[in-house]
Amino acid sequence: MHWITASFLALISFGLWGLFTKLAVMHLDYKSALIYQTLGVLVIGLITLGLVEFKPMSNLKGSGYAILTGAAYSIGCLFYFIAASKGKIITVVTLTALYPLITIMLAYFLLSESVSLKQCLGIAFALIAILLMST
């Protein structure tokens, strides 16, 4: 699968995730919603485990980072559910959708990845969008 196709499908999935989050916290408290979301992640994880014939790659460093990825995702989801239960989902989704800015800054400082002037302009527009969406 091409990365553009995968990115587009991820975009759709994350858009549905934002909507389903608000629908869940309209009927459950945020803690229960997080537990049920985790069950959904577990189902997809088990399906994926079957796709690799129950033999995932093994690398201590990679596995450690993958576990940290899951922990960061779960913590983020917990706070996302709290925000979604208390705020307007339009504003919550817009603000939290800026998480790539954190990744960009960390990649710049820790991985020495470059950021072009055009990308800096995109970041500025994203920040302006947050101001416009939150008022």
Seen as an oligomer or otherwise, the chain set is single chain
Count of alpha/pi helices: 6
Largest sheet: none
Name the helicity range: over 70%
How many strands appear in the DSSP assignment? 0
Q: State Rg.
A: 17 Å
Which segments are poorly predicted (pLDDT under 50) over 5 or more consecutive residues?
none
What is the end-to-end distance?
A: 39 Å
Shape: globular
In N-to-C order, the SSE pattern is HHHHHH
Coarse structural class = mainly alpha
Question: Mean of residue pLDDT?
Answer: 92
The share of residues in extended strands comes to: under 5%
Could you walk me through the main structural features you see in this protein, from its secondary elements to its overall organization?
The structure is a single chain. The protein has 135 residues and is mainly α. The chain has two domains: 3-87, no CATH class; 98-135, no CATH class. 81% of the residues lie in helices and 0% in strands. It has helices at residues 3-25, 30-51, 60-86, 89-96, 99-110, 117-133. Helix 3 (60-86) runs antiparallel to helix 4 (89-96). The longest helix has 27 residues, at 60-86. It is globular, with a radius of gyration of 17 Å.
Task: Considering the chains and any ligands shown, give keywords for the structure.
single chain, 135 residues, mainly alpha, 2 domains, 6 helices
Task: Summarize the entry for a quick read.
By secondary structure, this protein is mainly alpha-helical. The protein has helices at 3-25, 30-51, 60-86, 89-96, 99-110, 117-133. The chain has 2 domains: 3-87, no CATH class; 98-135, no CATH class.
